[in-house]
Amino acid sequence: MTQEELRIGVFVCDCGLNIAGSVDCEELRKWAEELPGVVVSVRNKYTCADPGQEEIKKYVREYNLNRVVVASCTPRMHEPTFRNCVAEAGLNPYLFEMANIREQCSWVHLHDREAATKKAKDIVKMAVAKARLLQPQEDIKTPVTHAALVIGGGVAGIQAALDLADAGHQVYLVEKEPSIGGNMARLDKTFPTMDCSICVLGPKMMDVGRHPRIKLMAYSEVEQLSGYVGNFKVRVRKKARYVDEKVCNSCARCAEVCPVVVPDSFQQGFSSRKAVYIPLPQAVPSSYLIDMEHCLGNNPVTCDKCLDVCEEHCIDLSMQDELVEINVGVIIVATGMDIYDPTALDEYGYTRFENVITTMECERLICGGGPTDGKLVRPSDYQTPKRIGFIQCVGSRTENRGNPYCSNVCCMNTIKDSLLINEHCSDSEIHVFYMDIRAYGKGFEDLFRRSKEAGVHYVRGLPGEVIEDPGTRNLKVR
Q: Domains of the chain, with CATH numbers?
């Protein structure tokens, strides 16, 4: 098509004052009309609204336009809208181009009208230049793989997998830990309803393990990914458990005879486990595995006691990692959160003072399934504390050390824990040191009020340091 045959229409959108407040839209309209190939330039207040779209259709027909340029907001928002609009006017939808003069211009140069207008002209000029080269295109259909990969076996990943599987799709659920459940499995209660955490999560975990359309790949990690939306090829490394999870009946004989004792990470190190272990009582898959880093069978001193007592013969110390390739059409990343390690914040004494613990460690101590059967004790002497302090925003909302953002859950988790501790230790004083209490969700403010009514003291301000009495191991917050 020669330049003389091109008939381009430019439609400049005010977007209320979002664009017109910074860009001289009338000057831009007149300027665009002089660009090569442009036969008409129109200004609209809201081009995306029905009257604006009807005007585009009218001008396409009246001026026999064969290219359309809309200067407005981001294509991410309304490109499909305008493609449909020009298609309804009888024009190929791919003979449309969009110039973003809002996010990339007016909002950036909010207080400089001259600069914003000059930049808007450049953006429109580029869009018109591109429109001259556009050719009609046809939509093509490509086959897609009707299977999904969910990465992460916490509560979000579990629910996503169940929803997809219940909708009739094959789902692969990949979890790096030996069992699904994530951090929610470590909590005693959930906020704001104060429901038993594992009572809510446990049945969902079991549903995943039994669902005919969910392939659970625990103790596995995604190693390589290629392809595109609709057709992904994923390589997953299934780490060796050294116990056949399909045969193991969780009889626990292997753990009974295992001589190796190591700290239990699920219990935050407050109790121990064996080198052959099951991650938690409600684990899915409900199978033991061997921690080969500590197993004597992988060291100069051989043991093999677990092999001797296993009646199902499901232990294989020579088991190797397995690489599995799967094909999926969509991937959901639900990898959860990491627990912040406050060791670097020396002023609070974490790891230096035994009675300074993290929120997650507190969760395990007050949990009925925890190492102390739900009794809150001081780690130094296992006595019930008379005064308890929570320091908020440790590692959060700081540019220098930690993370600049709010962790989103700590305020409400502390409020929840303060109520639980008040139930367990009604004689103990509880103090919460905070910058801001962010009780932002449904029922959150009510839980905050209940906590204050229960006698929890809220002190606005963060301590500068925590010191310890070496004799009593008591802590002082300054």
A: 3-133 (3.40.50), 147-239+321-333 (3.50.50.60), 253-309 (no CATH), 342-477 (3.50.50)
